[in-house]
Design brief:
Number of strands: 8
Mean pLDDT: 95
Strand content: 15-25%
Largest sheet: 8 strands, mixed
Strand order of the largest sheet: 1-2-4-3-5-6-7-8
Number of helices: 11
Low-confidence stretches: none
Radius of gyration: 18 Å
Helix content: 25-40%
Distance between the termini: 45 Å
Length: 294
């Protein structure tokens, strides 16, 4: 597969996701509210909220930022994973955002910011606890998660953008960064022919300073569970991120799932909720979050 071809990525990823989710249905113990508008961009600015039946007050909340190389994906592809997280005692917000190359950077961050602005304004109505917000993000979604958390915790980073970050209302207690890339300067230097030109509108060199998350991480950054797997093609990005955060005094855990014999332990394996290893991983991340409840 050519990683610089958005149409090929969309075709191949969609085929794999269809197999992964075939036959799955909404769990009988989950209440879901679908297709809530959070912004002006029609089908791209929609979100779902899930929680267990009978929940009638605010509870710890996970916000999922989906992956897909910035060019693929939407909330429907993450619904079963997110409802599975909700079964662990969380409200879960699952949303779509605009995709490159049709809508290049920073459209994705603008939409993420709009989601958190919506959360700040509507938390009470959807059983969202603003004091206990958590993020899960995978692949490109992990990078976007890491970047947005840097924006929330560093006003100098916020100043690079022309939208208002709700940093007074939104405080992330912890995050799970799954199978992602984080040092975007190093990643960009090695990816001139990869997907970054599609995401950054062709101006990789000029826009890398705007996605240089590592430069803006401070000790106010949230605790992170940094996860990868044996056959994750971004495996080598995980441990340096863990070490970088740990050296800043940020509470972190690092986990490499799988072995050489387990070919199925590939990129974003944790989304396949039928796999016992996915259950193990998702359990561990939720338990990590519970350590930081207020």
């Amino acid at each position: 597969m050519e990683l610089n071809d958005p149409n090929m990525i969309r075709k191949v990823f969609a085929e794999g996701d269809a197999v992964r989710d075939a036959g799955l249905t909404t769990p009988t113990d989950i209440t879901r509210m679908d297709n809530i508008s959070y912004g002006p961009y029609e089908q791209w600015n929609l979100l779902d909220v899930y929680y267990q039946n009978g929940v009638s007050s605010c509870q710890p909340t996970i916000v999922s930022i989906h992956g897909g190389g910035y060019v693929y994906g939407d909330k429907d592809l993450y619904q079963y994973y997110c409802m599975n997280l909700a079964q662990r005692g969380f409200t879960v917000v699952n949303f779509s955002y605009r995709l490159a190359p049709e809508q290049p950077f920073p459209a994705q961050l603008e939409d993420i910011n709009q989601v958190f602005t919506w959360i700040a304004a509507n938390a009470q109505d959807y059983n969202i606890d603003l004091k206990n917000l958590f993020i899960v993000g995978d692949s490109a979604g992990a990078q976007l998660s890491s970047q947005y958390m840097a924006m929330l915790t560093n006003q100098e980073f916020q100043k690079l953008y022309d939208f208002t970050v709700p940093s007074e209302q939104i405080h992330i207690q912890a995050a799970a960064l799954n199978c992602g890339m984080y040092d975007m300067v190093a990643f960009g230097a090695a990816s001139e022919e990869g997907i970054l030109p599609a995401y950054l509108g062709g101006d990789v060199k000029g826009k890398l300073p705007f996605v240089d998350t590592m430069r803006y991480v401070t000790n106010a950054y949230p605790p992170c569970y940094v996860m990868t797997s044996y056959y994750d093609f971004l495996k080598e990005c995980a441990k340096p991120m863990y070490e970088y955060l740990t050296n800043l005094g940020i509470p972190c855990e690092y986990k490499l799932y799988g072995t050489e014999e387990q070919k199925e332990m590939a990129h974003v394996f944790h989304l396949n909720i039928r796999m016992p290893e996915a259950t193990e991983c998702n359990d561990a991340e939720c338990e990590f979050f519970k350590r930081f409840l207020k």
